[in-house]
């Protein structure tokens, strides 16, 4: 079974500062993909970044980077230089080689960027 | 814009009624996924179709059913609606359902309110 845990229901960050959103996962799959999505108040789910279980380098996409620590089974999202528009819910998710029929999501973290 | 189209955006109906939610996947995507997002349950996988065939079932109630048509659009049918069915229903699509490294691309969702 796969399980995603996001332990921070809410986070605050000052504009222009960096913030780390935590995500840990549990899976019996050896091969899997980890994903982060952003859900603004308007409701849509926006794909941000992906990390493969065999990738040795941490993924980066613009101001987003994924701090992947495989041994600890953690895949934290780092947002640099926060902007007011980053205020949203953020979901960590995974798909596994064995359980690839669906994507499992964590409970989410609500990020609020303060001006 | 993810390229996934969901209609309608909002739906208000009474208990006991039946509704149909519609989804058109991204061009080229053969697989469609349905998710339910409620406040207390988070994002729950309901069902997946690939090229017209049901591929996987998640936490889908017997009152709910879905299908994928030859043109690859999909419909989610919800019947005998209850107050607890009020939620945001997402459709997502991907090219290859077996590729665990691929993200799911989500539509903007249909917000269902049962009164």
Distance, first to last CA of chain A: 41 Å
How many DSSP E strands of chain A?
12
Range of strand content of chain B: over 45%
Which sequence of SSEs, written as H and E, runs from N to C of chain A? EEEEEEEEEEEE
Largest sheet of chain B: 7 strands, mixed
Number of helices of chain A: 0
Shape of chain A: globular
Order of secondary-structure elements of chain B: EEEEEEEEEEE
**Largest sheet, strands/sense/barrel of chain A:** 6 strands, mixed
Question: Structural class from helices and strands of chain B?
Answer: mainly beta
**Helical coverage of chain A, percent range:** under 10%
Percent of residues of chain A in beta strands?
Answer: over 45%
Distance between the termini of chain B: 31 Å
Question: Could you explain the architecture of this structure?
Answer:
The complex is a heterodimer of chains A (about 120) and B (about 120). Chain A is mainly β. In chain A, about 0% of the residues lie in helices and about 50% in strands. In chain A, the strands form three sheets. In chain A, strands 2, 5, 6, 10, 11 and 12 form a six-stranded mixed beta sheet that branches. A four-stranded antiparallel beta sheet of chain A has the order 3-9-8-7, with no helix packed on it. Chain A has a two-stranded antiparallel ribbon with strand order 1-4. Chain A is globular, with a radius of gyration of 14 Å. The termini of chain A are far apart. The radius of gyration of chain B is 13 Å and the shape is globular. Chain B contains no helices and eleven strands. In chain B, β7 (about 65-70) and β8 form a beta hairpin. Chain B starts with a strand and ends with a strand. In chain B, the strands form two sheets. In chain B, strands 2, 4, 5, 6, 9, 10 and 11 form a seven-stranded mixed beta sheet that branches. Chain B has strands at about 5, 10-15, 20-25, 30-40, 40-50, 55, 65-70, 75-80, 85-95, 105, 110-115. Chain B is mostly beta strands. The interface between A and B is medium-sized, with 27 and 26 residues.
């Amino acid at each position: 079974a796969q399980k995603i845990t996001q332990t921070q229901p809410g986070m605050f960050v000052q504009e222009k500062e960096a913030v780390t959103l935590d995500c840990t996962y549990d899976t019996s799959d050896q091969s899997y993909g980890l994903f982060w999505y952003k859900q603004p108040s308007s409701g849509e789910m926006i794909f941000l970044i992906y990390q493969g279980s065999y990738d040795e380098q941490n993924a980066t996409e613009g101001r987003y980077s994924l701090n992947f620590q495989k041994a600890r089974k953690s895949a934290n999202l780092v947002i640099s230089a926060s902007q007011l528009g980053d205020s949203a819910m953020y979901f960590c998710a995974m798909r596994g080689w064995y359980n690839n029929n669906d994507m499992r999501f964590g409970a989410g973290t609500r990020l609020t960027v303060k001006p | 814009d993810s390229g996934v189209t969901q209609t309608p955006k909002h739906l208000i109906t009474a208990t006991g009624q039946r509704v149909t939610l519609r989804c058109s996947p991204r061009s080229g995507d053969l697989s469609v996924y349905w998710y339910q997002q409620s406040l207390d349950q988070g994002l729950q996988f309901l069902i997946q179709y690939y090229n017209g065939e049901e591929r996987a079932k998640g936490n889908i109630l017997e009152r709910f059913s879905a299908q994928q048509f030859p043109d690859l659009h999909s419909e989610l049918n919800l019947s005998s609606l209850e107050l607890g069915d009020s939620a945001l229903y997402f459709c997502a699509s991907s090219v290859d359902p077996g590729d665990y490294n691929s993200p799911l691309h989500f539509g903007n969702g249909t917000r269902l309110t049962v009164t």
